[in-house]
Amino acid sequence: MAEILLEGLSKRFGTEEVLAPLDLTIAEGSFVVVVGPSGCGKTTLLRLIAGLEEVSSGRVLIDGRDVTHTAAAARGLAMVFQSHALYPHMNVRENIGFPLKMAGRPAPEIAARVQAVASQLGLGDCLARKPCQLSGGERQRVAIGRALVRAPAAFLLDEPLSSLDAELRARMRLELARLHRALRTTMLLVTHDQIEAMTLAEQIVVLNAGRVEQTGAPLALYHAPCNRFVAGFLGSPTMNFIEGPEAERQGAHALGIRPEHLRVTRAQGLWPGRVDVIEALGAESFLHLSSGQGRLVARLDGSADLRPGETVWLTPAPAHLHRFDAAGRALPQRPG
Amino acid sequence: MAEILLEGLSKRFGTEEVLAPLDLTIAEGSFVVVVGPSGCGKTTLLRLIAGLEEVSSGRVLIDGRDVTHTAAAARGLAMVFQSHALYPHMNVRENIGFPLKMAGRPAPEIAARVQAVASQLGLGDCLARKPCQLSGGERQRVAIGRALVRAPAAFLLDEPLSSLDAELRARMRLELARLHRALRTTMLLVTHDQIEAMTLAEQIVVLNAGRVEQTGAPLALYHAPCNRFVAGFLGSPTMNFIEGPEAERQGAHALGIRPEHLRVTRAQGLWPGRVDVIEALGAESFLHLSSGQGRLVARLDGSADLRPGETVWLTPAPAHLHRFDAAGRALPQRPG
Amino acid sequence: MSSLSPLLRKAALTLLGWSVGLTLAFPILWTALVSFRSEADALGAPAAVLAAPFTLESYAAITAGTRFTAPFVNSVLIAGGATALALLVALPAAWALALFPGPRTKALLMTILGTRMMPAVGVLVPVYLLFRDLGLLDSRAGLIVVVMLTNLPVAIWMLYGHLREIPGEIFEAARMDGAGPGAELRHVIAPLAAPGIAATALLCLILGWNEAFWTLNLSAAKAAPLSAFIAAQASPEGLFHARLCAAAMLASLPVLGLGWIGQRALVRGLTFGAVK
Amino acid sequence: SAPRAETTITVATVNNGDMIRMQHMIGDFQARHPDIRVDWVVLEENLLRQRVTTDIATHGGQFDVMTIGTYEVPIWGRQGWLLPLEFDAAYDVDDLLPPIRDGLTVEGQLYAAPFYGESAITLYRRDLLAAAGITLPDAPDWDAIRAAAAAITDRTAGIYGLCLRGKPGWGENVALLTAMANSYGARWFDMGWHPQFDTPAWAAALRDYLDMMRLYGPPGAANNGFNETLTLFEQGHCGIWIDATVAASFVTDPTQSSVAEHVGFALAPNRPGGTKRASWLWAWTLAIPAGSQKAEAARAFVAWATSKEYLALVAEQEGWAHAPPGTRRSLYAQPEYHALPFAEITLHAISEADPVHPTVDPVPYIGMQFVAIPEFQAIGTAVGQQFAAALAGTLSAEEALAASQQLTLRAMKKAGYIR
Amino acid sequence: MPPPPASRRTARLMLAPALGMLAGWMLVPLAMTLWFSLQRYTLITSGAQGFAGLENYRYFITDPAFAPSLGNTLALVLGVLALTLPGGLGIALVLAQPFWGRGVVRALVLAPFFIMPSVSALVWKTMLLHPMSGLLAHLARSLGLQPFDFLSQAPLATLIALLAWQWVPFVALILLTALQSLDPAQIEAARLDGAGPAARLRHLILPHLGRAIAVAVLIQTIFLLSTFAEILVTTNGGPGTASTTLTYLVYIQSLLQFDPGTGAAGGILAVLLANAVAIFLMRLIGRALER
Ligand SMILES: Nc1ncnc2c1ncn2[C@@H]1O[C@H](COP(=O)(O)OP(=O)(O)OP(=O)(O)O)[C@@H](O)[C@H]1O
Ligand SMILES: Nc1ncnc2c1ncn2[C@@H]1O[C@H](COP(=O)(O)OP(=O)(O)OP(=O)(O)O)[C@@H](O)[C@H]1O
Ligand SMILES: [Mg+2]
Ligand SMILES: [Mg+2]
Questions:
Q1: Residue C66: band (very low, low, confident or very high) from pLDDT cuts 50, 70, 90
Q2: Domain at A4-228, CATH homologous superfamily
Q3: How far is E224 from chain D, CA to nearest CA, in Å?
Q4: Short name of one Pfam family for this protein (chain E) (predicted)?
Q5: Less Cβ around it within 10 Å: N or C end of chain B?
């Protein structure tokens, strides 16, 4: 339940600047999700907040207190490591109970809370196992458990669900949301999962090469990305970008249209296209097409009764056309 | 380019049976994806095939040759470990080049192939870094690179894309598909990502608690799961299950209906429901509802202009209703 | 140490480290100092020893002729040869024990160490007879073998300990990459266990260099190493502190130097960032 | 370099000053015997003894010439382990001092050639005694020693009246205490090989020793052997020191001793009216093991190293004071040597020594400060530990003697001397 | 993870040379020693030789020095371990941190281990501890105190201190190397879990070092049980039997008395003692080895 304030925070490894000076406010009790391509500095950001990495410049404030030079242990944060960082010589029970033991809680309380967290995470059967005897997903859940068992000022979660299967992941996602609603503890979560980002976040921070590209509510970012990077990064399959005469005609350097905003019809439409590949996911299908505007992806509900090689017509929904200038900045929506 | 045959393969750790005796044929040149909940034995299965774990019973045949007792190194398979298992003392270049070095390839060839694989994986900038200086996603890509650089009899890939962001993951997914098309090397991939499973697999193997639940083409499994487990496991959000009078009325113990097959309307419909939560992902939204049939999830295109608390009507598409008996087995589709 | 500023903390550590180091090394530093004093000055009070003039006369006295060079060469050959041999034999053994543990591994490890339990003084006569009959008395080969054998259990134990620290999946990865046992040993185990191997080699070198019982008792003139040189310096008629110190320094400098280099290799610790 | 067939002999020797000097003189030997090469094995005394004993007893054959003491020679000679020595006339066997020569002869056969010999004397600081206004007679008794020690002890100035060996070992404190006990009329064994530590004579000797050391001795005496005491004396910490005659040449050497010009000498003390002095006889000798393949070369070396010519060579190169003492009459006949302050008294002490009749009462053994039986090394060492413990204060004199008696009895029974 | 049989065969092959050599080195002398221990066999008396039954053992055990030597041996081993383990751990922890001149300090700390034991003993005895000319005596006198005669008044304690000084670098070295294989992420996790330095030491570092500590204890014990040169040089086992250990007693028997028969009997007894100690230790720390 803490407000985290980053002021001009930056990090260099040697000469390489991994995080450019960035300012960020994580409001008390909010759920913030950090997304960005691999290697963009997400983990580094979390580690700086946690106090595991020395800052190169800038300050970290927790509840107004400058903790830039405070030891990690004294910041009162809980973290789930991307690499799990389980204690190899302790079994699951001891791993999860460790923070409580460190806090000097009485043994019966520890036992009870560990038991509760473990069953919440579906780890009831493995309590006596060592990390080397666990599956990847079980390990990750232990790492989560170690954080959940505490009552920290804030949670820092570095891709906490990446090793879980879809069902478990969905369950864990809801569990996290429920937890956040119940505790209203500040949460900072790194993920590369679109669904996680969109559903959990009150606020998404899009990081790219150590720079914050945009911050905002999930749907706001989805519908009004401030630049081409954000537009392309959120949403899967990614947004289609069209350059050339068609874009210029609309007064932009590039046009963006999401796959779900491309209407596909057998007859009639704006642009013709040839179906290359169909990815059928069951609930939906992705059509990979070649057209005069380049390679495009369209999204269809259910299974498409099309086959590769067929020619179809594509029509972008005008209300959902994004326009970008040469520098990649978004241009205002065109009236009409 | 090998056929892998498992005959009565089983594995126990101590007294715990992690894999029940299973038979499986992985056809030459096919792309098989293994899915299943966390801890169901996916990694164990791969390790048994690789020769890293001793079988408790049964045989492993590669191209008809019994390799059950052949050393891992002699089986000619390439593997991506779930935990990456990079060589910490080698830099990225050496890590990727190691299998070639072991195969005694000349240095210039190694250099060229490593370069090619690295740029294919977007690792061109990190070639000189040690694993401890890489981000999680970069590490995973190195692990993939180490497998791709070889020309093995088959690839065993244990959640190779789990640490990658959506965009990169999509790219890597296409890359794997392209590679498989080009080489037609047998590939066995473990994943917990629905999209990966659906788009990459020629055949999906659903594993549950060490047992094969069903094997088949992705859409076949999606549309005709043989039991409730498979039905619930594939597809996200998961299938809605309805028990009670409604199911019995249809001659089943339980009914199953996928979220996309529940039509949501303001007025009129089969079952009334109250909106609890709306998860808006941009391209689609998930509605969590309470109804007389229990808690249900429905899927809508785009953003829904509904708000929590509102009451809506739900209508299942009859053609997509699944019926299960008390043991969870699927019952044949009802005519009409 | 938590809230100390990094700089202050480092300063405190520096102070602590140096005082520990200087305290432990004090007898040796003092020995070194005395070795550069004349015999008469060396016997004075500490302040006088400190103030006395520098001289190399003790070194000159004890290195006269070939009395130092021959044993020095022997020591290098014996300690070096024994270490190399011991590592050659111990590394595969430790690898097998560490990576393929079986139900008997622990018993085997104990047995290996058990071979060191016989007090050397108790077996000298039998071994002497054995060496006499094999014609190995006063031969470097014989001494290399003996020193190697006395160090082998320790080498296996140390290497075993270090190898067990390496996560097993890395070896599995190497196997999947087509590395046979030899290549695995060379390309993965050796570099990964490098600090451990360096520590073990250093230990074997030191133990071999300082081994004084067997080398003294099984050698005469031809193969006698520095332990014999030292035994020739200890307590002649009268106490020659300076000369004793000079001899001690000469005999120890090579290993001290090795230690200096060795510890640098040891620092190069490895972080296992690759394994989740 | 020379393509001539070369014989290499291995000489094992102790690292005492005189032997080190011998190594520097080897050029002379090489000049006389160009076909013989000498390899040295130089070790400190205890180690050397252990090495050569192991080697000779197992016929290891690693050494061609061994440096051994008067303790080993008769025992080994009797076992047939040593080659009997015959020298040509030029060597002049008769020139060897009779007590020394007798100690190396078994049944009329000489088994080792003496390199240097020693007995015991009293060394004292003339300046300190003079300051205290007393003098020490040339043949003092223990009462005189005690009185003088009491008079000059000044602990605050770091002056200790009496320094005696205290370090355990048959060649260290046991040597001194045996000699001292002899002067008290004690002996190790009676004629039936029964240990005699339970006699009043031993009790008196040990009690006096402990008494004097406690009152006038330096701190840490229980760890002082010959070397340590020598250093103490040379640094001026000791008033009186009763020890080997060789010490005389060291303490009078100004390059090494800060009290060189103040040292006086007297015979080893006896009891008032006693017949035996607390003296001893020892020689470091060169012998050839019976199995040596190179006996001829070895004999040539031994002859050279113990010859008159060698004495002359050392005298010529380093001065007479450094000639190995105590072996040849002719050395003492040299006027230059005789003029040295310690020459006369050393000769006297050695000549007076009688290892065959070391004690007042008859004994079945030979040896003054040791008992020339094989078992003595171990027994002596163990007994020495008891004496050292008594000196350190962990045992009383009575306890130390009782323990010594018991362990000696045990060992003699095991060895079959007594039932 | 139990390995496939193919690798197990290789493993056996890899073990063979070491085991063969050690078996030879252990079994041949051991057999000879056993044989000697049953013989009446002395080197320098040509007295009756031949089969002696258990006579040598009886003689060795009834030696008045035997009982004290057992006590001294154990006290020596335990005393040194009690000093070197905490000391070595502390040093390793300090040396694992970065500070100015760490390389030099590392070399300084390791130095005592590099000196030949007999030389160390000589240096300590003559230059540090000697009650007349030793540094400590000078120090005591300059403080107006009476110098303490360490080797006579506290021989065993002094020996323990000397041995601890020699062995503490070894422990530090082993623990330092082991420390470097500790995954830093674990330490970070523990820091976030609220573990202070002491808790991290107890719950993370010590368990991680478990095996290294076990190795250090066992190796040290084996070496300490056969400590010899240091005793020979400093105290000769005395005064009395105050610092006589079992090994030293064996030395007295076999190389002073030149009675290899009795010495062999003592040697066998020493092996038995060493095994007893080792088994006891294994019980104590064995689990750390398995993990
Ligand atoms: N110790 C280090 N030394 C040098 N470079 C480093 C170090 N640690 C990280 N980096 C680099 O910093 C960049 C950011 O790393 P970081 O781990 O924060 O990425 P990330 O956003 O978490 O990526 P991922 O999603 O792949 O985990 C990467 O390019 C990485 O290679
Ligand atoms: N060495 C072992 N000893 C005991 N149990 C083990 C061992 N290794 C794995 N297991 C158990 O076997 C089961 C299967 O493990 P496996 O690693 O194959 O799971 P998985 O399907 O890969 O799961 P995930 O998706 O979480 O990686 C798990 O319940 C795990 O706890
Ligand atoms: Mg990361
Ligand atoms: Mg797995």
A1: low
A2: P-loop containing nucleotide triphosphate hydrolases (3.40.50.300)
A3: 21
A4: BPD_transp_1
A5: C
